[in-house]
Amino acid sequence: MTYFYPSSGKGATLLLGLLMLGAGATAQQKLYKKSDSTASAGNSEADQRLRGIAVQARDTIGYIPHSELLLRTGGAVSRVHMDEVRKLPYTSVNQMLLGRATGVDVRIPTNEPGKRSAAFVRGASGLLLKNGDLFGAQPVYMVDGMPLITDHSFAYDVQRFDFNRMGTEIDPLVFLNVNDIQRIEVLKDFGAAAKYGPLASNGVINIVTRGPRSGELQVEVNGYAGMSLKPAVNVINGRWERDFRLPFYDRYASREQYRSFPSYLADSTNSTYYGRADWDESYYRNGWNTGLQAAVSGGNRLASFRFSVGQASEQGVAEKTGLRRYNVNFGINVMPMRNLLWSTFISAAVANRDRAQTIRDRMGDEDYIFNLEKPPSSNKAGVDQYFRYLEKGIDKNRNASIRVLNTLQYTVGRYVKINSRFGIDHGQNYRDLFIPTTVSDGNNFVSNYDGLHRRLVFDNSVEITPLQAKGHQLSVTLGQNNQWDMWKYNYGRAYKGKSDYIQIYQPGNNDNKPGASHNLRLTANYRDRVKNNLASFYADIDYSLAGKYFFELYLRQDGSSNVSEAERWKLFPTLAAAWKISGEDFMKDSRVFSNLRLRASAGRVGKMFQDDYYKGGPVYNVEAGWEGSPNMPTYDAFPVLNAAYELGYISEGIGWAYTDQLNGGLDIGLLNDRLQVSLDVYTRQDKQLLIKMPAVAESGYSGIWKNGMDIANYGGELGIEANILNGKKFSWTTMLSASANKTKLLRLPDGKTDVRLGNRRFVVGKPVDKYWLLINDGIYQTDSEVPAGMTYQGLPMKAGDPKWRDVNGDNDINDNDRVITGTHNPAVQGGWGNTLRYGKLELNMLFSYAFGRKLLNKALADRFDFANNEGVDEIDGAKEFTYWTRPDGDLEAMPRYNPWSPVRAYQVEQTLFLEKASYVKLRSLSLTYNFAGPWMERNGLRQLRVFVTGNNLFTLTDYSGGDPEAFDYFGYDQGMYNWAQPKSFTLGFNLLFK
Fold first, then answer.
1. What pTM was computed for the model?
2. What is the DSSP string of 849-913?
3. Residue 631 CB: number of other CB atoms within 10 A?
4. In this predicted structure, what is the pLDDT of residue 9?
5. Do 227 and 984 form a contact (C-beta atoms < 8 A)?
């Protein structure tokens, strides 16, 4: 496979060339007739053809709306104000949604540049037990009508640790440039999203980019530069840690435990740990962020185009992390004959990511636990040496994406349109990793990952509008859709090369060549591929009466290759209706209501299975690997075909899972729309979901996969926009959004009412997003305080142990005493935005908030649980440079349990570490100056504005840990592994030539 990744020099050259093109284009504007922006220059034949073509709505917005063929503007839709977002240095669509879109819960567990994040529309569908489950709970991202394909979870099957997916871990949305996006809409109910079929079951993020436009040649240039500020860190050294631990030793430690006091803390003359605590000076930095984008567009009704190029770079504030992206977009609209419209859009981008090299992540990449007896040094010299060693290694994370979309629309007479669309979304991820012996216990490591994902979409439809008279409008669309998805990867890894100069491993290559596999020992190769095909037939009947009553019936028959043959085809209907009350005669004279619209929709949409092995019942596979890895040796250390015990037993006849959703909405416009209110209430039920139920140990299977789990999400959403002041010199508009979502487990397979999976328990009738914890009631100060016979899972409890509540009263603390409580999903969340204009100045501010959220402070629990984490051969025992930071939290309020007690007193799954994590955050503040005056006209300028923005300026919260937004997907605050969003400041400009 050959890769082309332009360097920063090539990217700068490309941008410079476009700027020169723009300057030349400005000089050529005389070729265009300003009186008719659609006229062509000096071509009488073209002029005659143009006169015979009626102006259509698409000409006013400059391009054929790709989403027009599949979606009409109805249902529950939340829109992002892109004019404000373009002033912010965002490199991901999910960042743009935070606080701006109702009904969306965005999770960014780490702000490491370019790393994958997640979004949930109206709650998560299914149980989230591990990172692989996230992939099946994400909304589909539509870009100009093309559903993007993202990474698959199947790489987790050969991983030992569940925190980073194998490969580059790239955010699939990082390839989009914010200045190429025209609008972002969140389609939440099936009245708006059902036409996207099974992809829409988790919601739709509809992204429309700036397409070709008719008119004079126009050049735009957008740029910014800014800085992310390094965090303030309360650094410590070995003296602080020794003083922290000694009270526990003095009270609880035996002589043997005293003798096992860590050697790195025992010698106060050791400057490595007792010297200066200044590691942060090398670990953190101020990070530069830059972006530059330019575009040229123009044409007439027969042919128009838009071409843009851009680059963006973001330096992380820690560990030399960063992201560099280059993107090119080209779109063209052509009318080769009177009734035929042809639109083509091509987008290509590459992104190179410098990722964190934390000790934990490196152990995960290598599937190897280092010697953890001693942590890194607390001083700057130790950090500098560590990075000097890493510079002799390799960690290249390269990603490429190309998207091609072709759309044809042919009109037959007045009533018939034939639509055809073909799209390709292709992504390639490539990672080369080499870890030298100096940072890997004397054993070097090398790996190579080559991953690919590709989606093909082919959609054809006929739209008939037989009735358009006397207030009646009827439209009938019949069509078929095909979708072909494919994911695959080749991965190889090897250990113990002859020297650190051998940094290449070619998976599967056993040729006797220098630098190839034979120079390494303990090699392993993995290869996997998953395919998923979808075929669909649909009918859309859309009827409106008198411009006041709207009805739409959408029927879709879907067939999926991932469903068993007997259950492969299923019909999914959706019905939507709306009543424009303000159009009634009794409302025409209203001075209060300018708009009043009632909406309702009810529908069923299928859910796509991620994997292809559910369709045929029990499967057999090869499970081969090293001890401790997910795949185990089978017979005499040789892999053979056997039952998939690790995967689990797959039941016969697994059928479609699907989502039922009922939505009611009310849109209100008051005082000539100066106040607009949108209110939605909904209930969504995901039914027949797959779940791996526990199996009897004698079967050998890790579980049994079955249909039959139902989960409900229900809630409400409120959006308010108000034009409070609208004077000639001063104006003020405000926006307020609020979303609330609750969950409930409705059903389990085989009539079960209770299931325990890992550290979670799920009970029918209870929420599925809560923790399962022991309740703390204090500490047993003396043995006499311990109730007679009180045990923890059969172990006698003593003084210094937690006073955990014996819920069932059996005198034994165990899982039966854990309670379902707390949730990392907020009770209500949203944003409050304001825009104030005075003359040419504009001030924008956005606050985001979340109330009712609780987090488990795992970072604090791990610090107190030092006795069980010290020097153990487990990944939880890893200590990073950031270990030498004073722990966040109220240390004085923590009870001093016996850390050596066999009851594991400081285990995180207890209410002791459950904290309220509500917050209010000033997410962005921007000041803009819009230039105006005759001098702009003389210099060929249509728009010139400069802006300065600040991001994440302050947070109000009672949470004692870090940033209440920075936690993993399951509600655990892991400290340094959940990077908080840094404060940043940006200076930018938008320039538009006539």
1. 0.91
2. EEES-EEEEHHHHHHHTHHHHSS-SSGGG---GGGSBPPSS-GGGS----TT-TT-TT-SSBGGG
3. 19
4. 46
5. yes
